[in-house]
Design brief:
By secondary structure, the protein is an alpha+beta fold. It is about 35% helix and about 25% strand. A hairpin with a 4-residue loop joins strand 2 and strand 3. Helix 2 packs antiparallel against helix 8 and helix 5 (about 160-165) packs antiparallel against helix 9. The radius of gyration is 21 Å and the shape is globular.
Length: about 325
């Protein structure tokens, strides 16, 4: 195909090399360990996924691409997403176009109406590539980062006082899990609040329905080294979970908000901001340097909270899609 390079389908044995390749290009807080990737693979098999790997003569991975319907997490909606990443020195030779064409052929064979993906704003060449191949922007998301040591909590009301006024108790996840008479029931309640509130995130199309708790418990709550239990918080009202803010920690020690949500019945009382402030208090105690998050463009309430806290916005993640002709 291209002199000195070969392309083949990926297999389970390639996982460690694929994780290392993708980590090279990840934004802060977005890298992962091979061990965690293996657990997610086991918990969410994706039998329809196609993985392509390009290697040079020495067997070094120089490009990777994949297309998947999300497996169990995709909700069985035949909605496909693709990812193509080519190392810088191998771009401009047609490798990316070759990989994308093979992904599209695979997705079309599955009867999917379209294929979606994302391009980072600091990589304009990626956006030009997708436009050239018939993809159009349909949504934007924003990563943002907060300098934890420089953060001044004195500008804000005491989050415990805010919680008291709102009639809730906000406590660290690890403390509440240890207190729970039924640990699994507490995990389920936390997950149900998270799953319910995430459906309210404003997006151009609804998120797929969340998988059942039983399908994700082991990898989300039990065997997830990235889940920072002592830096995640839960809001309780009369023993019922009405808010969650889950923090993950990447291998480099960067903290990241996986999700923050408050039940509709408890919104407008400052609970989301109070949860973030308590997490920041704990991150300072741990000596964490950077705290990241991601928000959809239309999620004005959460973006407003993060702006008040002082998050610095990174270039947007531009979501693109190509609708296939029927």
């Amino acid at each position: 195909m291209i002199a000195g390079l070969s392309v083949r389908e990926g297999a389970a044995a390639d996982l460690d090399r694929l994780v290392e390749f993708q980590n090279r290009f990840a934004r802060p807080g977005r890298s992962q360990t091979v061990e965690l990737a293996r657990r997610f693979e086991a918990a969410n098999p994706e039998p329809k996924r196609l993985i392509l790997i390009a290697e040079d003569r020495a067997g070094t991975v120089v490009a990777a691409a994949s297309a998947s319907d999300g497996g169990v997490l995709g909700g069985g909606q035949n909605r496909w997403r693709a990812n193509v990443r080519v190392a810088a020195k191998h771009r401009g030779r047609g490798l990316g176009a070759h990989l994308l064409a093979r992904l599209e052929a695979h997705v079309r064979s599955m009867g999917a109406p379209k294929l979606q993906g994302a391009v980072r704003g600091e990589e304009p060449e990626g956006l030009r590539f997708t436009e050239k191949h018939g993809y159009r922007e349909f949504h934007r998301r924003y990563d943002a980062y907060l300098d934890v040591p420089a953060f001044d909590a004195g500008r804000f009301d005491d989050p415990r006082a805010v919680a008291a006024r709102a009639g809730v108790r906000i406590e660290r996840y690890d403390v509440l899990e240890a207190e729970a008479s039924d640990r699994v029931a507490f995990q389920r309640a936390t997950y149900e609040c998270l799953s319910t509130t995430q459906m309210d995130i404003p997006r151009p199309e609804p998120l797929p329905p969340p998988p059942p708790f039983e399908a994700v418990r082991e990898v989300y709550f039990e065997n997830n080294d990235a889940f920072a239990r002592d830096c995640s918080v839960v809001a309780l009202r009369d023993g019922r979970v009405v808010g969650t803010s889950i923090t993950i920690m990447d291998p480099e020690g960067v903290a990241y908000t996986a999700f923050t949500g408050v039940d509709r019945s408890a919104r407008g009382k400052g609970i989301a901001l109070a949860m973030k402030l308590l997490i920041l208090e704990r991150l300072k105690e741990r000596g964490t340097k950077l705290f990241g998050t991601t928000n959809d463009e239309a999620n004005a309430p959460m973006r407003g909270i993060n702006a008040r806290l002082g998050y610095v916005i990174a270039p947007p993640t531009v979501e693109v899609e190509k609708v296939f002709e029927t």
